[in-house]
Amino acid sequence: MEKSKSSRNQEQVIYDRLFDVILEQKLQPGARLTEEPLAEIFGVSRTIIRRVLLRLSHEGVVEIKPNVGASVVMTSPEEVAQFFEARKVVEGALASMITGKLTPYQVEMLYSMVREESRLFEMGNRAKGLRKSTEFHFYLVEAAGNQPLAEMAKKLIARTSLIVSQYNLSGSGGCACNDHSALVEVIVNGQPDEAESLMREHIDHIQHGLFLKDKSVETDLYALLKPE
């Protein structure tokens, strides 16, 4: 049976909300996503929650285990380098592809994102700053117009964002606004090989800020997700 429009709208709202709190590093890797409390929090059926969690698992940010349930994906220390290397290859190639080819509108959008990201961090709104940082990278990879590569890159960006959340000791979150400004400058005015090199260097900076040691996770879903 086809889902009703209301059901689809509810599903999208909940999906967006959960995806946001995960990428804002409010919902930590390892946090359990139990259907019953989520259904109660959002005032929907467990069926809708189940569909949302399945979508998030396809995005690579939620893991669903039989007889265990769903949780935000955790990455073992041994796997970390693999995800960052994959991201450097894919996102570096996409940065090279778009160098010198962005429209004036796209350039202004990127600069606007960098300014907003910087403003949010200066205000002390770390969560929204992290979300804007992720949006910056999503926008860059989509600008190349290669959907398969963009989808691959977005999954890697989301996964490495979770890795930063899991292993970042200082709580700084990974990306630096000045790195993003420099990336836009090179992509607009530089050469493709420069852009690829700088992107790989930027992702290296993120990886090198990690402290590869597990930490315990306890999350209060009601406190985090309840309507204000």
UniProtKB/TrEMBL annotation:
Keyword Transcription set for record: yes
Entry superkingdom: Bacteria
Cross-referenced InterPro entries: GntR_C (IPR011711), TF_FadR/GntR_C (IPR008920), Tscrpt_reg_HTH_GntR (IPR000524), WH-like_DNA-bd_sf (IPR036388), WH_DNA-bd_sf (IPR036390)
Sequence ranges assigned to domain HTH gntR-type in this UniProt record: 8-75
UniProt xrefs under SUPFAM superfamilies: GntR ligand-binding domain-like (SSF48008), Winged helix' DNA-binding domain (SSF46785)
Keyword list, A-Z: DNA-binding, Transcription, Transcription regulation
Record Pfam families: FCD (PF07729), GntR (PF00392)
Family annotation (CDD domains): WHTH_GntR
Protein name as it appears in the record: GntR family transcriptional regulator
Organism from which the protein derives: Thiomicrorhabdus heinhorstiae
Lineage: Bacteria, Pseudomonadati, Pseudomonadota, Gammaproteobacteria, Thiotrichales
